[in-house]
């Protein structure tokens, strides 16, 4: 087989699949979920507590925040996804329910360059945990007396970029006359 075939250019051997140059150039990324668990879960059924009457037309808001930290063991990281789901009646803005979920995963990660580790932890790891979070939120809202809440897919890349832009803007806002240092 020629070099042209192995780097993806058309070439010599028929039926051979070209290798992807990125995989050949970098050692492979190794990602394992060692554990995942609910750190904290709270569901408040305000309708049942206060007895809201009349027609109910719910509006649901979801807030997501992410956190990650290195663990003591080599190549291990903990990623925490925090979800706050609030529902209020669209007509009178009365709260219907509040659900807060902190869901964590412990990951073993190798082969990711240090400068790419933070985005990897904040994008890929939450993406892997998402189906479990979605199921928990659906079950809790259903068990709390409401229709199951099916969380829409989250674009963790966009979420990461928004947070990076927010941090860059807040760091860029400094009082007049202050040096950059």
From TrEMBL:
Keyword 4Fe-4S (UniProt): no
UniProt xrefs under InterPro entries: SecB (IPR003708), SecB-like_sf (IPR035958)
Main location, first listed in the record: cytoplasm
Pfam families per the UniProt record, alphabetical: SecB (PF02556)
A single MF term (Gene Ontology): unfolded protein binding
GO cellular component: cytoplasm
Superkingdom per UniProt: Bacteria
GO annotation, biological process: protein folding; protein tetramerization; protein transport
GTP-binding recorded as keyword: no
Similarity comment: family membership: Belongs to the SecB family.
PANTHER family, sorted: PROTEIN-EXPORT PROTEIN SECB, PTHR36918
Summary of subunit composition and partner proteins: Homotetramer, a dimer of dimers. One homotetramer interacts with 1 SecA dimer.
Task of the protein: One of the proteins required for the normal export of preproteins out of the cell cytoplasm. It is a molecular chaperone that binds to a subset of precursor proteins, maintaining them in a translocation-competent state. It also specifically binds to its receptor SecA.
Name of the protein in question: Protein-export protein SecB
Species this chain originates from: Paracoccus salipaludis
